[in-house]
Amino acid sequence: MTEPIIRTIQAHELEDLLLLYKDLHKQDDPLERGERLQQQWARMLANPGMEIWVMESEGSLAASCTLVIVDNLTRGGRPYALIENVVTRADQRRRGYGHAVLRQVIESAREQGCYKVMLMTSSKSDEVHQFYEGAGFTKGVKTGFIVKLD
């Protein structure tokens, strides 16, 4: 058995990531495969402010999250970071993979000079909230608002 590793995603792993995302949003409509998807994927990979981190275990993606670094003109010009799409494959949960990926992503944000890292969850579950608190996040510091565009 090989030790799990945390790394940024590789270009050829799009289908593996989309498979993992099925455990994130089960109700999502499937993405149409084709040139448009490939162009979107290429833009994401080329975006210097976006990092998709993964935990690889036994040759497949077990967990992932996306880090977005946002340039900023306040806080001494220090950027801030947003985390999205935090997911661990259903059969790989409770092994510490999610926390491990979040620790790596937070460290990446720190190394890039970010003054804070934010994430939001739509989950009302105390268990999910405790997961994020266990990863170092503090609930209730700010109030989030969302405008749904679809």
UniProtKB/TrEMBL annotation:
SUPFAM superfamilies: Acyl-CoA N-acyltransferases (Nat) (SSF55729). CDD domains: NAT_SF (cd04301). Transmembrane segments: none annotated. Coiled coil: none annotated. GO terms for molecular function: acyltransferase activity, transferring groups other than amino-acyl groups. Keywords: Acyltransferase, Transferase. Pfam families: Acetyltransf_1. Gene3D superfamilies: 3.40.630.30. Residues 4-150 form the N-acetyltransferase domain. PROSITE patterns: GNAT. This is Acetyltransferase (GNAT) family protein. It comes from Paenibacillus cellulosilyticus. The lineage of its organism: Bacteria, Bacillati, Bacillota, Bacilli, Bacillales.
